[in-house]
Write the structure tokens for this entry.
Amino acid sequence: MIEHNDPISRIIDQIERGEITMHSKVRILLGTIGIAALAATVFMLSIYLISAGWFSLRASGILLLPAFGARGITALLAQLPWVLIAMSVVLIGVLVSLVRFFPFAYRRPIAYSALCALGISGVLALAVNETPLHPLLNERADAGAFQVVKPLYWSAQRDTFVGTVLARDTASLTLDTERGVLPIVLQPETKYPAGAAIAVGDRVLILGDMTDGTVVAYGIRPFDDPAVFSAASLGERDDRSE
Amino acid sequence: MAGDHAELSDETIATRVQSGEAALYGVLMERFAGKMARYVGRFLGNESDAEDVIQEVFLKAYTHLQQFDAERSFSTWLYRIAHNECINAIKRRKREPLPFFDPDTIFPHPIAKETPLDHAERAEMLALIARTLDALDPKYREPVVLYYIEERSYHEIADIMHIPLATVGVRLKRARERMQALHAAQQV
């Protein structure tokens, strides 16, 4: 066989000898499917994380904290799920990187792709929140199953307390919370929503300082967001409304 | 070989190579050898690196040819492979900075109109490029080579470099400004 020295001829010789071969269409298809599967997985994970975060924000009651002014906003910022937010941002970033292989993405600024990914994930996350998925998973995690998702379902912490009023008088009430039964001291300065009457059996959110097991309430608000209801009780509510 | 198939488009030849006529790949290589030599040579600024990169470009183009969609431009597809190989070569050299994160591609810019140069303007620009190209950062050097030397359109450059269309105009504008500043500094 004649050996050619110019690069073009060398490559043709290598092709003819079978030293260089085209990747098969199957291999290329598998690669494309792999990227698509990875993008779909990242997308679904981002939807789940965003929806779980939104569910927990509502279920914990901390979205009501800004009603208490600057102290409430500070308490909200301290309790936001920053790790979850960071993970969601990273996932959106990964998703944007994956779609930038395609002309519809790389021909436009990254900000457009990121906003689009965030917008679509956000809308789908809100749709997921209309299903009983998170109340169910939250209950199962509390019962000991699905422990891997337990960190995604968190409750109000630090100086924020959510629970059901077990008893009350003019200067105090007893609150049944996830942190146990707590006595709550009401003061003249305690912020109430105008016209609200807190009764036994009501679910409330309290911002206050706990000392020796007693909470001095800075503010109190009714809290009956449907997100906290379990899948079973959602069924009961549907029955009652019929 | 090239003469026998002069009437065939690049895309037609690529499709026939995909179907098994491997010998026709030589026709594509002959057609693009000069363009690749010019593009890679001017982008890398180093002839010994360029030969290795060009060989790698044609090897990769052949092995990945089944990925090529004949509805699109073979030329743009090949330049895209060459772009990736040049970037890899620059990273291996480590002598020139390549930012991981490019702020130009994040936010929208107004899309600059692509205005063709007349003969005198083009000659002036090519003279400026000859004097200052090697001193430009790779991210400005490449669009200059593609636009003024390879005569690619803004759309083609966007597809080759995988950047937004508006960013192509921004980079060319900044490249012109830098070349003029470099030329002025050389005059002093």
Residues 229-242 of chain A have pLDDT under 50 and may be disordered. Chain A touches chain B at residues 7-12, 15-16, 20-25, 28, 100, 103, 106-112 (CB under 8 Å). Residues 52 and 74 of chain A are 22 Å apart (CA to CA).
